[in-house]
Amino acid sequence: MKVGILTSGGDCSGLNAVIRSIGLTLMNNVKNVEILGIPEGYGGLIRGESYRLERNDFEGILGLGGTILGTSRQPFKKMTVAEENGTTRLEKMCRNYRKMGLDCLFTLGGAGTHKTAALLCMEGCNVIGLPKTIDNDIFGTDVTFGFQSAVEVATESIDRIYTTAASHRRTMLVEVMGNKAGWLTLHSGIASGADAILLPEIPYEPDELCELIEKRQKDSRSCTIIAIAEGALPKSEVKLKKEERRFVRTERGETTGTQHLAEILQANTGVETRVSVLGYLQRGGTPCAFDRLLSTRLGGFAALQAANGNFGVTVAVNGERIVYNALADIAGKYKYVDPKGKLVRLGRLTGISFGD
Ligand code: F6P
Predict the structure, then answer these.
(1) N or C: which end of the chain has fewer CB within 10 A?
(2) Is pTM, for the whole model, over 0.90?
(3) For the residues 208-229, what does the mean pLDDT come to?
């Protein structure tokens, strides 16, 4: 059996732990298995690059951040567009899949990666997806690997920001990644006891936040901590299309939405307000124990699916169990925070403002 592994899209902690688990499970349980690493995600497959992974390559990588294979972003919408010689990237990938003589391709990636994986399946390639992302927005799985490690980093960062904010009696806006989903902000915001949590799924009203800050001032609270998702929007911008929003923001000479909100809060409350963008710190570094375990479970389960000839699926977490979903059923779908869901309700019960 000959399999290929690639990691695609933004990296996260746990990718190497999954690669290791797939590799070791196959080597220990399947006779005559050959494992190829495909460098830089779909980029490597488009170019037809691969190299053999040996048992030694899986040594010492369980706790290593990033991906030993490298990664790249390859936009889904470009996959079926004809390039030079009239060939599409999809055609190149299928041709190279066959040239490499693969029986199965493991694609470790987020929602975009899964969409392309579903396309490859439709073209007759045997693909098994694995759900990676700090955003936790992949449909059909309770959790993705990489998410919990990012939650740990964001939570510790907000804890640290709290002490400096309290010393200076400031308002702090801590911007958390997550693309259009608020999972990372919601989990780390609750875990760090943020005073307000702003999510893409719950548009905010700046006036509500001003009131919150003023009330906290009146109550002699030392500071206000606001965890804001990078995709959070004020109510006034919700109905705008992406291009219109960009236009409005450029007109206002705005750097980022978070910076703009900070200026409004400072101007209206008189409380010194600062922004801290956590950025790539949330993606880098060693996976937490939860992610090492989850990655090992997902990788092992995916390897067994390959050994059993169960292709065209992506592995997933459903409660206590690792399961699989048809790639065709989940491709193009996302999982967002339910504004009426348990965690948001819990947050409200404990007095967290969602700015709405
Ligand atoms: O999808 C993971 C993620 O880290 C998002 O949270 C973020 O919006 C995006 O990737 C950043 O992408 P890039 O690495 O291309 O800057």
Answers:
(1) C
(2) yes
(3) 97
